[in-house]
Design brief:
This protein is α+β, with helices and mostly antiparallel strands and about 130 residues long. It is built from one helix and nine strands; from the N terminus they run αβββββββββ. Helices cover about 20% and strands about 45% of the residues. The longest helix is centred in the first third of the chain and has 29 residues.
């Protein structure tokens, strides 16, 4: 009896996991841009059309462009002990943080995140949804 219950629970969990994986695959196949590994980018004020992956520092070519909304928030960039980007925090009333939207070449919205200015660089985090 215990074995039947155990196998029933295992079978249920497997079905759930397979269903979740299929759903994730279906969602990403609808919009190829979401598959991008570079969810956190940065750019320099001197050349705001060139984006860099924050982990690899490699230049990234987007299929479109990013629009950083007017800053209405105060933000902080947080780094881990090795100096790598960890996350950003945006609070009310400020002038260095706001919503960022990536658009494709057809001017269709691809993804939404937040941006925060850190010195001459602006970090755009698409893991953070506004």
């Amino acid at each position: 009896m215990k074995q039947k219950f155990f196998f029933s629970v295992c079978a249920g969990i497997m079905c759930l996991l397979i269903g979740c994986q299929k759903e994730d695959a279906d969602n990403t196949s609808r919009n190829e841009n979401i598959i991008k590994a570079n969810t956190v980018l940065y750019f320099n004020e001197e050349n705001p059309t060139v984006y860099y992956d924050i982990e690899t520092n490699e230049a990234i070519t987007l299929d479109g462009y990013i629009v950083c909304d007017t800053a209405r928030l105060h933000g902080y960039i947080c780094y881990d002990n090795q100096g790598h980007y960890s996350h950003m925090e945006c609070e009310s009333l400020g002038n260095n943080c706001g919503r960022a939207v990536e658009y494709n070449q057809n001017h269709e919205q691809v993804r939404i995140g937040m941006w925060c200015k850190d010195g001459n660089e602006t970090i755009v985090d698409f893991q953070v949804v506004a």
